[in-house]
Amino acid sequence: MIKIIRIALISMCCALLMMPFQVFAHTHHQESPIPKAKPNVQTGEKNTLQKLIDATEPGGTLLLEGRTYRGTVIISKPITIKGSKDTKIASLDSAITISNTNNVVIEDLMIQAENIAIIGEKVDSLQLKNIQVEQRKAGIQLTNSSGITLKNVDITGEEGHFSTKGHAIAIYKSKGVQAADCDIWRVMDGFYLEQVDNITLKTNSIKEGRYAVHLMYSDNVEVTTNKLESNMTGLMIMVANNVSIYENQITKNNTLNSLGVYLYDDEDVDFHENLLSENTVAMSIENTQKMEVSNNEFSTNGTAIQAKKSETLQLVDNQFFGNILTMRTDQKGVQLHHNFYDDYAGKDYDGDGIGDTKYIATNSFGQWMVRKPVYQYFIETPSVVILNLMDTEVTDGDTAIQIDESPIVMKKNTSRDISINVWQLGCSLVVLIAILFARRKLR
Amino acid sequence: MSTQMILLEYKQLLRSRWIQIVTILFAIVFTAILMIQHLAMPDTTGFTRQTASLLNILLFLLPLFMLTIGSMNIASDKESGWLGLLRTYPLNMGNYVLTKYIAFCLVFSGIFLFVVTIAFLVGSFFGGIKLPLFAIGITAIIILIFNALSIFVGSIAKSRLHALALGLGVWSVVTLVWNYIVMAIGTITAEHVLQKIVILSIHMNPLEWIRYGYFVFSKQTAVLGPALYGVSKFYTSYVGFLFFLFISLMWIAFSLLGAKIILTIRGKRG
Fold first, then answer.
1. Bridging pattern class, strands A335-337 and A314-316
2. Pick among A374, A390, A420, A442 to test the B interface (most B CBs inside 10 A)
3. A364 to chain B: which residues are within 8 Å by CB?
4. Using a CB-CB distance cutoff of 8 angstroms, which residues of chain A are in contact with residue B113?
5. Domains of chain A and any CATH numbers
6. Which residues of chain A fall below pLDDT 70?
7. Contact criterion met (CB < 8 Å) for B56 and A380
8. Positive or negative CA dihedral for A77, A78, A84, A89?
9. pTM
10. How far apart are CA B101 and CA B146, in angstroms?
């Protein structure tokens, strides 16, 4: 009997001794119980998360509590880290560094780091989902990686000029990047992608930065259904092949030297069904070959299209309205076909929907602006408006002008509100009666 | 200067057929531009071609009306002997000039109010229109500066026909010829020289001054390009704003003072 009691006591003591180590033993796969960081860990908060990561088996899932974890963590094995509500990682340096590994999934986290929030190098298959970053220096920086998925990553920079900030998402020398539903605000560049192959940017919203999307030396690019608003430049793509840009809204990029879209030295570009509105220059295309711009809406921009050394550029079935200048090009020009221009004054007597006379898209003043930007001061002055009218009448034989031989005469979508504004009607009637009464009295 | 005299001038101007025709013409054009903007353009806050049209209507038509009506009115006073009669009274020419100026400003403010009301009335049948705030500000500055200029032009003129010719001449120079000259100079000069000439021309031409003021105060100097970045930065500052007011006041003060001096000298010559 005494022997049995002794064995029981020894077992209990062993069990009690083992309890503190259970925190390290909770490295589990998906089906394992949820590991919890124990409150009685004596090593301090700073290392808690790193220890939890270290304790998680490769390929396992680490579920974090809804609290703040402090310090920098390094991930160098396949792992899924999943936060819960209010899970936050705060660091005085970088928050998460991922290197030389694969299959890393991080989701449902808020990150606050004084340096770069997430750094990744040589990572194969990285998924970042539902991440919120309060950016100080930079958001996410990935190098030499592949299979990168960014889903619902929200990055917010501090107030101040973009020149003092870093990029929200910077990816270098990588393959296979997919970013969707990301919300980026007040940073330098929303997406900075350099030497990246196979990129898809979809349904992202980027505001108040330098370049919303800055992409160079990259191939196989798809940019779709994004909202790029109030940036210095919406979309900047340089030295890229096989680019598809469609259904984006690129608006209000209207500061000094702003561009909605800037394409330089690109090849094989398809740009269709985008809305470009209220930009200083909606599209600037330079040295770009095999590009088609079709079914886009260019409305109320300073200049709709500015093209240099892009003679193969084709503009088809686009709508231009409310732009101050439709086009300015160099001598090489572009090819215009079947677009709608709200300032087209021709008629359609045969009723085929195509104007009977050609539309001249460029004018001398626009060309002067290309040569000497100071001339921009005179834009739409009464003198220039008259000059343009005269210009259109006398430039028929000029080979440098851009002509659309088959302009569309009706805009595809027109919406008109013809309801009566009772308040405005009443007020204006009262004021009108008052004016007429006063005038009668003063006669 | 008395309120009675201002009221008398005001009443006489209101009876003018020319003013009535001008008001109707202005109302039609202004309403048409606003309606086109409302029906054909998306609701935007930036500088569009339609905004430019609205700005140009104000910059093109209002100075024309003011320079011709104002200068001819002063010349008419001289031609009809009314000014000579007034000189037999103990009336200071400064008071005469100021009375005319206030009356002109009131009449053109009334015209603008009427035109805006008509535009709103028509627009109310199409869901209601919005009048950009700049239109009110820019009109106020045009009224203040160009009415002063018109009195100056009228004081120089010897007859109504002379006043009309002078008024149209000044109008064509400030609206069209001036810019063509600057643009032509730009074709033979370096870009940095042209930039300096443009900045100088903004300060020397009242119409360009008002137009530039619109871009500065509506925070849309980006439309004018990078060449004017430095000067625009200055005018968007507090000191720049005060300087803008000072220059604007100088245009008014020098015009009215010039008119007073000319009328006084010519009065003494008999």
1. parallel
2. A374
3. none
4. 431, 435
5. 23-196 (2.160.20.10), 213-362+402-433 (2.160.20.10)
6. 1-47, 392-400, 411-418, 443
7. yes
8. positive
9. 0.74
10. 10
